[in-house]
């Protein structure tokens, strides 16, 4: 195939590999494509049309229009054509949130080492996609654009080449079936939100009697079936979605939910009808595929079926069936019996007596929550002797320490870390885990978002040894709630590790709630989940850190994660908002800022920035996490203090407003002016530059520049004040500005005080 050149020779090869919409492009160029054969209303490319094009332009470049079931990520590099951002770096940062992209076939004319290329993936058919994944990364999709491929010649003179998933060049053309499947997290992120109502066929489960639910099924089954039928390819393909749905419904049946088998029966005809057209054996083959799915699901479930439908119980009862509650109590009692035998006699029988709590428990966690979980009933009057004696019972922040030694997470309490996708929440949790592992402390990582491979890779980059990871890092990626029959043994093991762990991370609160059949917008569901997962873990002593998302709309965000405000109300440690102020990734130095929105115990808040955020969000900066990834083998992390300098100008009076943005613009205008401008000339220049500031605010900006010595003024011959630059004003150098950046680098700080930095 090395001698093949031009469209006439290449087109038959592509069509044989399943790429039917092969089009010619001008020789040595990428555009224009033939009219009418691209876009949503494109005409099909027939054998006759290929023959016409091949005879007319045999040496033309070759393009393939993206077919249904295929999506292409067009990644531009920093040196690419007219790009505004480095797409390769952006996709790497996005991978930290969504998980690594699987290796797949790719095409580029820029050489084997260039990150700028087209990545080809299989995706569910019939979905609508965004125009781009991130700045610098476009999406080529059915009905939108095409890919220029081998043996085309790039305008630079280089030839396009295909690369295998291993990264080597090849003379073969990939068949569509050879492409890697895009993970469902990426599918959900890249697809457009659905604004249409479900198709009428989905409404077969709606009961005419109630107007909402099929009365044969309980609430949980109705809700789950509705979601599955409304998005039959949500997990990457109809097969995978149905497979997971059947497994879930079989688990629902095992837990006693009413109507789970009826729901499975509704899925069967729908699955066969949708899959049959794509199968060579049509309905018969689709039926055999369904039988294999159902048989596999039944094999996955063990244990004794519950007789009571959880949906007919209260929220707490649904999360804590009697047998699960008893098992959990016995687990904690057994754990305590191993390390604190003197306390076993108190479990579930009598209130805690004075002096029954060890000093280590007082230091490491909340005794109140520990004892509440030990006893079979929480409605007992507490013994207040130790509190009345002045003993400090609240937990102290000892986990995730800043460079000054101040801890940022409370042990024995639930702490929260929330932010936008890609803001570095998981990275912060893993940095905290690395600290604990380096001190030979046990860490539990309950992960609903990523994979063990990616997390362990990050820990190794943070300097944790393989021996420390194997001995002290306990990682689990559950796909069901702890109380399900298949999860009980694992949940019991988790509580066993929690007895010695100093940190437990639950990465992905929203996903965890979904697996439990709970609604993140329901205060009742949130309260039930807190009592049956985070608080059972914190009762054993570790710092529990929840990783959560925020609502999409910036205007509607509060001080808490997305969903019910009950999330913030139930935090008994500290709640942080995370924001990546400088990009973090390979080869760069980035910064993540965390800000406190609520400190229940108030031992960290006094060590945060003095002032609230200027935007009225009532957040106070707690730390700046500076991440240096320029060394590909080791990540250097500094957990720096916030700016602690008191600033009188941040008080709530309107007269104390400081228009730093206008001050910088005015300073630049004065610096660059050929003749000394007057105040009216400065105002006119600001308005022509698009400033909508009021005259009073512009006047205040000039006055502050005069008072602080950045500009001087004098009277002109027309008796008007004219302004001259004395020294430049920049927001980045102003400690009173939100854009202030300390000029002293972290390397200089290290030279001044080698003992006050954290090298992870």
From TrEMBL:
Coiled coil, from the record: none
Record InterPro entries: DNA_primase/pol_bifunc_N, P-loop_NTPase
Region (Disordered): 338-375, 729-760
Biased composition (Basic and acidic residues): 730-760
Residue ranges of every copy of the DNA primase/polymerase bifunctional N-terminal domain listed in the record: 11-186
Alphabetized Pfam families for the sequence: AAA_25 (PF13481), Prim-Pol (PF09250)
Name of the protein in question: DNA repair and recombination protein RadB
């Amino acid at each position: 195939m090395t001698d093949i050149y031009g469209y006439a020779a290449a087109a038959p090869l592509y069509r044989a590999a399943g790429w039917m919409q092969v089009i010619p492009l001008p020789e040595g160029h990428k555009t224009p494509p033939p009219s009418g054969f691209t876009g949503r209303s494109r005409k099909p490319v027939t054998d006759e049309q290929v023959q016409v094009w091949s005879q007319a332009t045999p040496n033309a470049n070759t393009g393939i229009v993206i077919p249904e079931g295929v999506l292409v990520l067009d990644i531009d590099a920093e040196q690419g054509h007219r790009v505004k951002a480095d797409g390769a770096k952006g996709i790497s940062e996005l991978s930290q949130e969504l998980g690594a992209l699987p290796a797949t076939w790719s095409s580029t004319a820029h050489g084997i080492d260039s990150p700028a290329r087209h990545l080809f993936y299989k995706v569910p058919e019939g979905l609508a996609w965004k125009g781009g994944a991130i700045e610098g990364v476009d999406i080529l999709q059915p009905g939108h654009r095409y890919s220029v491929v081998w043996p085309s010649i790039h305008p630079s003179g280089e030839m396009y080449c295909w690369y295998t998933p291993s990264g080597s060049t090849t003379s073969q053309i990939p068949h569509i079936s050879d492409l890697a499947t895009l993970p469902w997290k990426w599918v959900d992120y890249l697809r457009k939100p659905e604004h249409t109502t479900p198709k009428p066929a989905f409404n077969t489960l709606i009961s005419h009697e109630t107007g909402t639910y099929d009365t044969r099924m309980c609430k949980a089954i109705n809700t789950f079936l509705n979601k599955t039928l409304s998005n039959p390819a949500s997990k990457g393909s109809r097969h995978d979605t149905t497979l997971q749905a059947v497994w879930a419904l079989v688990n629902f049946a095992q837990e006693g939910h009413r109507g789970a088998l009826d729901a499975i029966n509704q899925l069967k005809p729908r699955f066969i009808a949708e899959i049959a057209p794509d199968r060579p054996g049509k309905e018969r083959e689709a039926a055999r595929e369904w039988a294999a799915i159902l048989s596999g699901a039944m094999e996955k479930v063990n244990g004794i079926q519950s007789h009571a439908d959880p949906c007919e119980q209260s929220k707490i009862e649904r999360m804590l069936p009697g047998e699960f509650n008893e098992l959990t109590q016995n687990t904690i009692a057994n754990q305590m019996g191993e390390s604190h035998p003197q306390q076993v006699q108190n479990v579930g029988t009598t209130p805690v007596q004075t002096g029954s709590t060890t000093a280590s428990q007082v230091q490491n966690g909340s005794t109140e929550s520990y004892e509440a979980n030990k006893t079979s009933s929480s409605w007992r009057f507490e013994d207040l002797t130790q509190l009345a004696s002045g003993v400090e019972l609240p937990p102290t922040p000892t986990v995730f320490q800043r460079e000054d030694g101040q801890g940022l997470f409370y042990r024995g309490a639930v702490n929260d870390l929330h932010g936008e996708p890609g803001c570095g929440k998981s990275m912060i949790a893993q940095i905290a885990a690395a600290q604990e592992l380096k001190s030979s402390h046990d860490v539990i990582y309950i992960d609903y978002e990523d994979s063990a491979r990616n997390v362990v890779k990050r820990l190794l980059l943070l300097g944790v040894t393989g021996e420390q990871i194997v001995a002290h890092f306990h990682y689990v990626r559950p796909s069901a709630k702890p109380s399900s029959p298949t999860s009980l043994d694992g949940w019991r093991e988790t509580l066993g590790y929690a007895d010695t762990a100093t940190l437990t991370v639950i990465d992905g609160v929203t996903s965890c709630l979904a697996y439990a059949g709970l609604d993140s917008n329901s205060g009742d569901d949130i309260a039930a989940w807190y009592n049956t997962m985070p608080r059972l873990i914190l009762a054993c002593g570790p710092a529990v850190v929840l990783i959560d998302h925020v609502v999409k709309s910036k205007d509607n965000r509060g001080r808490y994660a997305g969903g019910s405000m009950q999330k913030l109300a139930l935090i008994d440690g500290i709640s942080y908002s995370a924001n990546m102020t400088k990009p973090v990734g390979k080869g760069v130095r980035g910064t993540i800022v965390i800000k406190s929105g609520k400190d229940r115990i108030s031992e960290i808040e006094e060590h945060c920035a003095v002032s609230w955020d200027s935007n009225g969000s009532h957040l106070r900066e707690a730390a700046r996490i500076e991440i240096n990834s320029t060394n590909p083998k080791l990540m250097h992390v500094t957990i720096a203090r916030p700016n602690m300098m008191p600033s009188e100008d941040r008080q709530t009076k309107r007269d104390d407003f400081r228009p730093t943005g206008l001050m910088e613009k005015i300073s630049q205008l004065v610096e660059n002016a050929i003749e000394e401008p007057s105040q009216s000339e400065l105002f006119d220049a600001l308005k022509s530059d698009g400033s909508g500031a009021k005259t009073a605010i512009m006047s205040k900006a000039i006055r502050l520049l005069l008072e602080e010595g950045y500009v001087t003024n004098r009277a002109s011959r027309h008796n008007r004040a004219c302004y001259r630059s004395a020294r430049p004003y920049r927001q980045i150098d102003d400690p009173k500005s939100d854009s202030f950046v300390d000029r002293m680098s972290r390397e200089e700080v290290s030279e001044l005080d080698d003992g006050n930095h954290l090298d992870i």
